[in-house]
Specification:
Keywords: Membrane, Transmembrane, Transmembrane helix. The protein is mostly helical. It is built from 7 helices and no strands.
């Protein structure tokens, strides 16, 4: 029995889809709905990316193994061409041959390392690109709540000439901020799917940064909600 706890991308996407529908029901023409739609699209793309990352790239591995075998075979063949007759062996020849063999081993070793790590590096690059999109989405969601000032909502007379227009009631503002908080939290959940499937140091670090970012953004939103509820 496998008791490993894992995030399921399907359930996260369903939650994002449901959130978008809730935003559409209450704020059908809002920019928040548009960003939720974009977020849903990115989450669906992330699911496809994660499936690709989770599967072994058989063709790339076979190509890498073939090149490695050719390199090793070439190295062994070059060694067999060395003249090992005692009468032809001098200190200068030994040094020259040893240096050539050492250089060949270094080159073959570097090539093996490059080819063996190629699949992981390609997957890491794809994951980091997608994580950057999620980071941008988190900031865009935050932009939509920045102008929602609970103090001005409670005291409209404190608004200035250039203050954003306040068209939401207290209840609507609470719901709007709730939706922003949920969307921000879900960004962190989608990001966590990448570190779950590809626990590389660079990916885990990027995911941790996004989770720290979304936690901080959610904290700001909840501070506004506390003010509204007091």
């Amino acid at each position: 029995m496998n008791d490993t706890v894992r995030l399921e991308s399907e359930k996260i996407i369903k939650t994002i889809d449901k959130l978008e529908k809730r935003v559409a029901d209450r704020f059908p023409n809002s920019n928040l709905r548009k960003i939720c739609l974009q977020f849903l699209t990115i989450a669906q793309q992330s699911q496809q990316n994660i499936h690709w990352i989770s599967r072994p790239n058989i063709s790339l591995r076979l190509f890498s193994y073939l090149i490695i075998l050719i390199g090793i075979a070439g190295l062994l063949y070059s060694i067999t061409l060395i003249d090992l007759k005692i009468e032809n062996t001098t200190l200068a020849n030994v040094v020259t041959v040893s240096e050539a063999i050492f250089n060949d081993i270094i080159l073959v070793g570097a090539a093996i390392f490059f080819l063996v790590s190629l699949e992981s590096r390609l997957k890491t690059r794809k994951a980091l690109k997608s994580l950057n999109e999620l980071r941008v989405i988190a900031h865009v969601i935050d932009m939509h709540q920045l102008t929602k000032d609970p103090y001005v909502n409670e005291n409209p007379e404190s608004a200035t000439e250039h203050s954003p227009k306040r068209t939401l009631t207290k209840f609507e503002l609470q719901r709007y901020l709730d939706y922003c908080s949920e969307a921000t939290a879900l960004v962190g959940k989608v990001a966590a799917l990448y570190s779950q499937s590809l626990p590389e140091e660079a990916v885990v670090s990027a995911v941790n940064e996004i989770e720290t970012l979304t936690t901080g953004l959610s904290r700001k939103i909840w501070q506004k909600l506390i003010i509204l509820n007091n």
